Fold this sequence. Notes:
Radius of gyration: 22 Å
Distance between the termini: 45 Å
Number of helices: 16
Structural class: mainly alpha
Largest sheet: none
Order of helices and strands: HHHHHHHHHHHHHHHH
Helix content: 55-70%
Amino acid sequence: KDGKLEALNRTIAFHADGKANFLSVESRGKATRDYALSQLQEAFEAVDPRFFGLFEDEKGVRDLVYEIRGKSTGNAKARAGAKAWKDVTELLRRRFNDAGGDIGHLDDWGMPQHHSMEKVGKVSKDKWVSDIIGKLDRKYYTKSDGQLMSDAELTAFLGEAYETIATGGLNKLSETGLRISGARANRGNASRQIHFKDGEAYLEYQRQYGDRSLWEIMVHHLESISKDIALVETYGPNPDHVFRSILDEVTSETATANPQRAGRVKRLANSTENLYNFISGKTQPIANPHIARWSDNIRNWLVASRLGSALLASFSDLGTMYLSAKVTNLPMNQLFRNQLEAMDPTNRTELAR
Length: 353
């Protein structure tokens, strides 16, 4: 009776009943990310079976960032690792563009930067702009006529970036409380609007205003572009618009055909839209990072506590956890022991984190 709405729902997220004969956005995104991670792992370990130990060494991280940004360090392992990273990210960029995306190729692009909302928010706009402006590659900051931005124009541009980072995107909310976004096809270009002039400038900024490790930044980038690939491959270059159009059409059609079920149809349409917003990352920005981390732990525990015999299904993203364990030299048996302990409802230590 609600067939088309249910079918639309299944295009978004995985359903364990096996009724869908197509990949959802969620499943497609995870498959793409896992493939990218596997390619990266193979390439890294082909260089050296102990390559992941490099991420624990400050000099190793520096050399890898320098090599990714095109500066020779004499570290053959870092140079080979940089090539592996560039090959994988270029593969994903091309796949995104093949599906209708628009991420231009930058010869000296290395990796995305991470901004800590908490750290940036603790300083004034003037302080943040002053700290970052000297680290940027000015040739990328041009006006519509091709002329370079003046100091005042670049300062204004960075001021807007500060507002977005420091508020976690609260300055870009729609009337519904969701993030305003343009075509997904162009989002990759927007994420490159902070251009550091070299690897040292990048590392200095990360030390001052980041709170993720290099490996975490890499994995997050692969996850983010994989999700964007899944959305564009499923719904086209402007998935938000296409999804909204389809949802409105099938909701109206279903309610008109079954007026007595209009209430149920509206509830299903709302839940479908909420699911899309969650999977596509259009949820409300984080207001408090500490509460967000606590909520994640609570949600994971609640899900695990209801799985029963399907316990192993709760070990989501095992590939990511496996590689992260290698980065920190965590034995596999300890990894699984930690997961089991996190699911133990009597484990208050995990809930307190």
